């Protein structure tokens, strides 16, 4: 069985379309279709069913998938060894993450990793959803809830704190906030409830707010609302140094702790390259969270 044909098979299985597979393989859809046909002819079986929704695996295709993934992993490790790149950070690596960590933490951390590893290309994909590592949407992903299912390697990265906050201009123009009960008289900024993709992002129940008047699925948009003096919202302490004028309120009554988890596909656990990047991400993230939370505690901001 030809590895190149299996590589095409994996791309179609993950993209669920010939065009999507072609983009990842950097070739046209017609070529992908011919390669799939050649593989199916060689195996004397159909591996995909075509429908208006795309290409889905048949039962034989489902049975072939784990073997193709195992071969992909073996080929990757073999390339590292043969090329002498084992332990060296080179090539491209994609990290999927919620936009809070992607905006306020990963840029600094990835900058340091890139400076130490000039031949490594890092990509940060910030999307408000859970990444599918089985479809290779990313090499690793960061979440705020520990998954309980799937073939994953899960690593704790760091704990972080969140508090209720508002811009001083909003606080000056609205009734004083002395207890959680006073929040009913204030406009709340937060997530769109039916677009919360991770239970760790559901803050409303913990604040006791009955209504979110201004909502977005993006942490960055919520922060901009707060900076504009639009209302009160839950913010990451590590984001406060980037938001001059936004200050915490009710810190004793409303205090949340969450955890960042790093996810990798279980088949990648033998990759020294990915393991080293994971270690660097963990060390960098813990240090950066501690640095920024210390600045926030002192009421300091980051100068441009």
UniProtKB/TrEMBL annotation:
SUPFAM superfamilies listed in its UniProt record: Periplasmic binding protein-like II, Winged helix' DNA-binding domain
Segments forming domain HTH lysR-type: 1-58
Coiled coil (residue ranges): none
Any Pfam family matching the protein: LysR_substrate
InterPro entries noted in UniProt: LTTR, LysR_HTH_N, LysR_subst-bd, WH-like_DNA-bd_sf, WH_DNA-bd_sf
Superkingdom of this protein's organism: Bacteria
Keyword field: DNA-binding, Transcription, Transcription regulation
Entry's family note: Belongs to the LysR transcriptional regulatory family.
Stated name of the protein: LysR family transcriptional regulator
Species for this entry: Thioclava litoralis
Organismal lineage: Bacteria, Pseudomonadati, Pseudomonadota, Alphaproteobacteria, Rhodobacterales
């Amino acid at each position: 069985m030809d590895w190149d044909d299996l590589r095409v098979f994996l791309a179609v299985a993950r993209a669920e379309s010939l065009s999507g597979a072609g983009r990842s393989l950097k070739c046209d859809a017609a070529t992908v279709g011919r390669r799939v046909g050649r593989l199916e002819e060689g195996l004397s079986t159909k591996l995909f069913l075509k429908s208006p929704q795309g290409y889905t695996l048949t039962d034989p295709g489902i049975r072939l998938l784990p073997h193709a993934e195992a071969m992909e992993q073996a080929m990757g490790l073999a390339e590292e060894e043969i090329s002498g790149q084992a332990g060296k950070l080179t090539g491209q690596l994609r990290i999927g993450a919620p936009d809070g960590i992607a905006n306020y933490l990963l840029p600094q951390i990835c900058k340091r990793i890139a400076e130490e590893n000039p031949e490594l290309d890092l990509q940060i994909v910030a999307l408000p959803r859970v990444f599918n590592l089985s479809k290779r949407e990313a090499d690793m992903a960061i979440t705020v809830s520990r998954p309980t299912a799937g073939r994953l390697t899960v690593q704790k990265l760091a704990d972080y704190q969140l508090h209720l906050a508002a811009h001083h201009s909003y606080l000056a123009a609205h009734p004083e906030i002395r207890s959680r009960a006073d929040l009913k008289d204030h406009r709340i900024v937060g997530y769109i409830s039916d677009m919360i993709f991770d239970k760790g992002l559901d803050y409303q129940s913990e604040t006791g707010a009955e209504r979110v008047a201004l909502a977005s699925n993006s942490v960055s948009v919520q922060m901009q609302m707060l900076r504009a003096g639009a209302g009160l919202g839950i913010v990451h302490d590590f984001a406060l140094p980037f938001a001059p004028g936004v200050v915490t309120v009710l810190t004793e009554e409303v205090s949340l702790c969450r955890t960042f988890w790093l996810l990798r596909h279980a088949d990648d656990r033998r990759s020294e390259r990915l393991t080293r990047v994971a270690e660097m991400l963990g060390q960098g993230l813990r240090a950066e969270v501690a640095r920024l939370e210390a600045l926030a505690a002192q009421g300091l901001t980051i100068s441009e």
